[in-house]
User: Which sequence fits this backbone?
């Protein structure tokens, strides 16, 4: 009897957790697929893609292109800078003091609230007439992605076995060739994981986008969704549809992201 | 030769990080000592005048208070829920592997999408929550538009989004505790609560510390949800430091004052940051 009561409670708890977790997601999908008051006909089989169609008519593709461009450029800059640096910190002989300081600072940088850093950068870009420029936003996004990439890549480089590198060193290969020809293939899964996280971070970023971008033609997807949110109820179907589309990359990588998320937090 | 090369490889990253963190920290401090208005062009040295004004600014005080209340409550709520869910999911039951990705799902959405979801959930007229309340015979509630419910609503939304991360960290921790310890406790006849207090909690100590640090750092910078859902209102009930800096600096263009607020914000968070950096590096 006792055991069955425990099982009932356990089942109830799991059901509650899932209800809490899934109902907002169910609701936004529902709103995106229904028109007007049909949203309340919860079990009605009538679905329509008209919200998605309207979104495309309103030029949503342009914002998707902007966001893809920005995310790709941000990730490219981060990787091109962080891969060599992470290799040097993890593998080459350098002053311990410098290494520890560098590591501590990349970690510290991720704890600073981003709003605190943006004013001097905003003033500088506004004086240089560089506001409202996607390339400049990609540079500013390095505040998020560069410390993150450095930190995770240093971990991946450290985990790679020492032997392969030592064999090459004995053969007289120089560190750059070791990085390109031996280390890169070994840490490639780590680099791919880091790249995916950088892509997702810049894909979803809102604060710096809303500060540094001004004209509609440069808007990213999060800015468009934000403008729907503040439009006070008129275009909720479109807002929901835009939210679903913008979440697709994240959902696509769910299982992958989850595996590395835990690793990223718990790495020694 | 190798040392020079190593330094050369880190240099570009180092320079960009300095440009994006060290330069702004000094910049913000420098601006904070001036009356600086970006539109009128006024730029005159004023010493600690802006700090004095901030401490007398009602809105700033409210924003600091709201931020601390939000940060403390949200952090504890998320830690508790994350731990609770991890303990529940760690039990053996059919379908456990299937629900794991479902529980983590909320964190797969960006903060803007999460905000739009909850805008749809909490709307007083058409939202699902009030719809269900009405069906059950309760009064509908003005979630985001009432002075007393707005901040709790934001806490609920943040908790929905971030409990999964706390859960994941605790779940990984629980999985690393050897089953034999629990079996031994069971044989010794220890009641479940004692097992939890004497085995689970001590084994998860570093995970709990990590979650508390991560969540307090992140909740302290709360911006997007209040910017998108309440704009700091009603009656400043959800005004946060980040939002205050944004409005003062980038809407009213008082860069000096906003910089002083930024520097104070940095000062408050730095203690937590240092503990976090030490905790993670020394692990």
Assistant:
């Amino acid at each position: 009897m006792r055991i069955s009561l425990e099982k009932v409670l356990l089942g109830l708890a799991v059901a509650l957790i899932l209800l809490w977790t899934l109902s907002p997601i169910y609701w936004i999908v529902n709103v995106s697929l229904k028109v007007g008051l049909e949203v309340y006909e919860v079990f009605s089989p009538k679905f329509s893609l008209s919200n998605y169609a309207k979104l495309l008519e309103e030029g949503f593709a342009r914002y998707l292109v902007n966001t893809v461009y920005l995310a790709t450029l941000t990730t490219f800059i981060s990787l091109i800078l962080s891969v060599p640096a992470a290799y040097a910190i993890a593998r080459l002989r350098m002053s311990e003091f410098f290494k520890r300081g560098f590591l501590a600072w990349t970690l510290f940088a991720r704890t600073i609230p981003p709003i605190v850093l943006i004013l001097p950068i905003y003033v500088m870009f506004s004086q240089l007439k560089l506001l409202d420029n996607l390339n400049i936003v990609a540079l500013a996004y390095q505040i998020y992605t560069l410390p993150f990439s450095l930190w995770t890549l240093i971990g991946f480089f450290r985990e790679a076995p020492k032997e392969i590198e030592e064999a090459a060193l004995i053969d007289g290969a120089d560190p750059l060739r070791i990085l390109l020809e031996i280390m890169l293939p070994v840490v490639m899964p780590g680099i791919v994981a880091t790249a995916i996280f950088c892509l997702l971070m810049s894909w979803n970023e809102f604060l710096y986008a809303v500060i540094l971008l001004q004209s509609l033609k440069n808007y990213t997807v999060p800015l468009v969704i934000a403008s729907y949110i503040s439009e006070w109820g008129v275009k909720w179907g479109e807002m929901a549809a835009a939210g679903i589309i913008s979440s697709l990359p994240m959902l696509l990588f769910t299982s992958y992201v989850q595996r590395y998320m835990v690793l990223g937090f718990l790495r020694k | 030769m190798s040392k020079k090369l190593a330094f050369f490889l880190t240099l570009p990253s180092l320079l960009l990080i300095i440009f994006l963190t060290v330069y702004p920290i000094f910049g913000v401090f420098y601006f904070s000592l001036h009356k600086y208005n970006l539109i009128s062009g006024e730029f005159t040295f004023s010493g600690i005048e802006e700090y004095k004004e901030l401490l007398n600014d009602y809105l700033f005080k409210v924003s600091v208070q709201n931020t601390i209340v939000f940060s403390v409550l949200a952090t504890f709520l998320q830690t508790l829920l994350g731990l609770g869910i991890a303990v529940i999911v760690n039990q053996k039951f059919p379908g456990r592997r299937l629900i794991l990705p479902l529980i983590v799902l909320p964190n797969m959405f960006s903060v803007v999408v999460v905000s739009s979801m909850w805008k749809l959930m909490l709307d007083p007229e058409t939202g699902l929550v009030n719809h269900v309340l009405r069906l059950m015979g309760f009064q509908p509630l003005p979630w985001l538009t009432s002075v007393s419910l707005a901040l709790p609503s934001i806490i609920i939304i943040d908790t929905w989004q971030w409990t999964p991360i706390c859960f994941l960290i605790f779940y990984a921790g629980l999985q690393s505790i050897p089953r034999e310890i629990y079996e031994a406790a069971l044989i010794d006849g220890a009641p479940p609560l004692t097992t939890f207090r004497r085995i689970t909690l001590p084994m998860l100590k570093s995970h709990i510390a990590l979650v508390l640090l991560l969540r307090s750092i992140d909740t302290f910078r709360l911006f997007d949800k209040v910017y998108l859902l309440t704009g700091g209102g009603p009656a400043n009930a959800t005004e946060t430091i980040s939002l205050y800096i944004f409005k003062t600096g980038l809407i009213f263009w008082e860069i000096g004052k906003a910089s002083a607020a930024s520097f104070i914000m940095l000062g408050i968070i730095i203690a937590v940051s240092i503990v976090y950096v030490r905790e993670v590096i020394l692990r």
